[in-house]
Amino acid sequence: MTTCTALIVAAGRGTRFGGPLPKQYALLGDRPVLRHTLEAYRAASGITALQVVIAPGDESHYRNAVAGLDLPNPVVGGVSRQQSVLHGLEALCTANPDLVAIHDAARPFVRPTDIAACLAAAGADGVVGAVLGVRLADTIKRTDAAGTVGETIPRTNLWRAQTPQVFRYGALLQAHRDAAALGLSEATAMTDDAAVAERAGMKVVMVEGSEDNRKITTADDLDRGIAMESRTAFGFDVHGFGPGDRVMLGGVAIPHDHTLSGHSDADVALHALTDAVLGTIGAGDIGKHFPPSDPQWRGVSSDRFLRHAVGLLATRGGRIVHLDLTLVCEAPRIGPHRDAMVASIACIAGIDRSRVSVKATTTERLGFTGRREGIAAQAVATVETPRR
Ligand code: MG
Questions:
Q1: Domains of the chain
Q2: For 68-105, how does the pLDDT look when each residue is reduced to its tens digit (9 = 90+)?
Q3: Judging by DSSP bridges, how do beta strands 129-135 and 159-168 pair with one another?
């Protein structure tokens, strides 16, 4: 069986990216960019091992990103990409795979089928390397330093090279060692591994990939990068009236001749909204997160329940699109407090007021709400979450 180690280069510092984390560790949806990349390689047939090269000092970012993936310890890279790749190749000496697939960690959208196609091309007779890329569609101009056009370059047979770049392992290691010994670097156009192999006279072929396999360079690329899906979920709650002089509804204290009884502040509106938001991510219900048997939730303000649910959604990379609430009661009258409730719910959920709807109805004096025994609340939450 042919063995192929994927060497994932995550040692870059990405000066154009900004942000608190190097781009390979930033969240793309709910997972770090590096993790998306590694999952693509785990799904590619023919990849028999994974090895990541990281920058010195990034060990804790790395551990977070790969938790649970059962990977070997990372190799620490050098001051340039070329050096980092060489460190990674040297670390594979003992394993001595037939092929090595070198890939930039910041290309998380690579398709497993394209990876496999590169492996097949690199393993063909007489071929040493195969590079995933796309044919140029734009017209290419060469200018002087001032931007004045000097020539138009025919784009026939011109490609943009991506990764993976797959090579026979021993040949690429030797080519990299030779280039390093000669002091060849990015400054002398050794900007990818194929350039190192070409310089050594090896036959390298292009494999047609897709524009989807783009590199994450700026923070905007992260926002554009992940496909989202809509989800809708329902929440329902009832609390009965007890002695008191006000009810909490949507975080607003509304004067009334009774209060709502319950373990917390019995804010039936926020409870229904919390269950709706939890429902969008399949995270159970409010009782699972805040058991009524737990004395620490006695009398607490229910805004913390909704905040908790919204926080869980956010940690999954999701966001609320809309919250719709219907209160069912004969009294108190909701209309005069509707705007205050909309503002309160929007504030608790961290969204604009235009994304909150509060409605009220009665049951025509029928049933428990008609007999003024309590208030029922129904809520629908619509959210966007990363498609898995
Ligand atoms: Mg409740």
A1: 4-225 (3.90.550.10), 228-386 (3.30.1330.50)
A2: 999 999 999 998 899 999 999 999 999 999 999 999 99
A3: antiparallel
Summarised one tens digit per residue, pLDDT across range 179-206 is 999 887 766 667 899 999 998 999 999 9
Instruction: Name the pTM for this structure.
Output: 0.65
Instruction: Report how many helices (DSSP H) and strands (DSSP E) the chain contains, helices first.
Output: 12, 18
CA of 336 to the centre of ligand 1 (A): 23
Measured in Å, residue 274 CA sits from the centre of ligand 1 at 10
Question: Residues 281, 282, 285, CA angle at the centre, nearest 5°?
Answer: 110
Residue 384 CA, ligand 1 centroid: distance in Å: 25
Distance 240 CA to ligand 1 centre (A): 10
Say how many Å lie between the CA of residue 264 and the centre of ligand 1.
8
Please write down the HEC assignment for all residues of 326-346: EEECCCCCCHHHHHHHHHHHH
Contact 133, 206 (CB under 8 A): yes
CA of 377 to the centre of ligand 1 (A): 9
- Å from CA of 239 to ligand 1 middle: 6
Phi-psi region of 31 (alpha: psi -120 to 50; beta: other; left: phi over 0): beta
CA of 316 to the centre of ligand 1 (A): 25
